[in-house]
Specification:
By secondary structure, this protein is an all-alpha fold. The chain has one domain. The chain is about 60% helix and about 5% strand. It contains 15 helices and 4 strands. The protein has helices at about 25-40, 45-65, 70-95, 105-115, 120-135, 150, 160-170, 175, 180-185, 185-205, 205-230, 250-255, 260-265, 280-290, 305-315, and strands at about 10, 100, 160, 295. The strands form 2 sheets. It has a two-stranded parallel ribbon. A two-stranded antiparallel sheet has the order 2-4. The longest helix is centred in the first third of the chain and has 27 residues, at about 70-95. It is a multi-pass membrane protein. It comes from Electrophorus electricus (Electric eel). Belongs to the fatty acid desaturase type 1 family. One of its GO terms (molecular function) is iron ion binding.
Length: about 325
């Protein structure tokens, strides 16, 4: 998940009312009014920023052969660290409370999440909780029922549906507000400046900026968006055939363990977000390492018996 600050509530759901007995002129007038309303809901700033970002990423691809190998390595390291900030931090720790982390680890994950630049931890976690509680409804920030494009990136181009705002206010976020690491917004500004300015100076501003910042950021965003789009549309449903989220190995490889989405929506409390533990799940490896180092603990896990029973009861028989 990722969001931007300028897509607040909009009363237009983007739906058409069924045709009634209106005459042609009335229907045409209503259609024009609806179109104007939808256009007012478009967040043009986000549209322009995403266009510029993806244009910059395309240019960065041209620079890859010219860049120093250290720049390639640094870019990949930035991708992994920022991905962990989202997957192990904003997602599994703060959104689902699937394990506990001590202060040094929480600070590291907050810094890594700031590098990912996908909104602050509080907003990310609040919206993700809404996504799980109201999945595939108008209260879901990136409702996949509205199509692949909307679930992938289109939801950032329009203001949030009013249900996202209204029902989001009913969520219990007291745990997030009680965590000083979550509400300390200065971390985001400090880490952003450090990563984009100071670290780039060490590797050469031009190539490093476009590869380690622009290209890395664009790829990480699209990988995260694939969890919202592809993993809600393509794949099997061995745990619960009655929900949209799927098991998608392609997404799993890119999103370092977040593509086992049918499992995750069936057992959202599981710290591994999959049945298979360490397999194809670097985020789980990281959390286990932190536990071994004494920086994390209290991992929550669905038992084999619980998983087997759920497969038999609601699974599609694919696994």
């Amino acid at each position: 998940m990722v969001a931007f600050p300028d897509n607040e509530s909009c009363n237009v759901a983007g739906r058409y009312e069924p045709e009634g007995a209106e005459n042609h002129e009335e229907t045409e007038a209503k259609s024009k009014d609806a179109k104007k309303s939808r256009n007012r809901c478009i967040v043009w700033r986000n549209v322009i920023l995403m266009f510029l970002l993806h244009t910059g990423a395309l240019y960065a691809i041209i620079l890859i052969p010219k860049a120093h190998p250290f720049t390639w390595i640094w870019s990949y390291m930035c991708f992994i660290v920022t991905a962990l900030g989202v997957t192990a931090g904003a997602h599994r720790l703060w959104s689902h409370r699937s394990y506990k982390a001590k202060l040094p680890l929480r600070i590291f994950l907050a810094a890594a999440n700031s590098m990912a630049f996908q909104n602050d931890i509080f907003e990310w976690s609040r919206d993700h909780r809404a996504h799980h509680k109201y999945s595939e409804t108008d209260a879901d920030p990136h409702n996949a029922v509205r199509g692949f494009f909307f679930a992938h990136i289109g939801w950032l181009f329009v203001r949030k549906h009013k249900d996202v705002i209204e029902k989001g206010k009913r969520l219990d976020v007291s745990d997030l507000l009680a965590d000083p690491v979550v509400i300390h917004k200065i971390i985001r500004c400090v880490i952003l400046c450090y990563c984009i300015i100071i670290m780039e100076l060490k590797l050469g501003i031009w190539n490093s900026y476009f590869l380690a910042s622009i290209l890395r950021y664009t790829i990480s965003l699209n990988v995260a968006w694939l969890v919202n789009s592809a993993a809600h549309m393509y794949g099997n449903r061995p745990y619960d055939r009655n929900i949209n989220p799927r098991e998608n190995r392609f997404v799993t490889l890119g999103a370092i363990g977040e593509g086992f989405h049918n499992f995750h929506h069936t057992f959202p409390f599981d710290y591994s977000a999959s049945e298979f533990g360490l397999r194809l799940n670097p985020t789980t490896c990281f959390i286990d390492l932190m536990c071994w180092l004494g920086l994390a603990g209290s991992r929550k896990k669905a038992t084999p018996e619980m998983i087997k029973a759920r497969k038999l009861r609601t699974g599609d028989g694919s696994a």
